[in-house]
Amino acid sequence: SLCPGDPARAYLPPGAQEELCGYNQSELIPNIPTLPLSYADAAPLLRSLGGPVAPPDFTGALNLTYRLGPTSGGLRAHLAINNSFNKGPVWNVIARVPGTLPPDLDQPVLLGNHR
Predict the structure, then answer these.
(1) With CB atoms 3.0 to 4.6 Å apart as the test, which of 13, 17, 42, 86 could cross-link to 37 if both were Cys?
(2) Out of the domains of life, which is the source (predicted)?
């Protein structure tokens, strides 16, 4: 995201977005539909690609041979994406877990995740 925070920000009146985060409305809304895919959904699509084998720096961590495409046989994928920009609750969980090292050897450990 170019401008993290409230996703409805992209739909503010013209000019308001630039004032808040430095980007205009056309820059905040993607030009192509995007949707995260699970491994179970992505693997069959990637396995169906033909063409030359992708170079090592153009591959990911899935256990399959990455190819650059295209694929033969008229294979098609249909995506139905119904995104909505809604406000909702956000949670910050902050905790302190006491350790057993003396203060001069103590090191912070930061953990993070998303919901």
Answers:
(1) 42
(2) Eukaryota
- Closest by CA position to 97, among listed 110, 85, 88, 84: 110
Q: Are 47 and 30 spatial neighbours (Cβ–Cβ below 8 Å)?
A: no
Q: Nearest Cα to 28, choosing from 36, 13, 17, 16?
A: 17
Side chain identity at 84, as an amino acid letter?
S
Please answer whether residues 83 and 36 qualify as being in contact, where contact means their C-beta atoms are separated by less than 8 angstroms: no
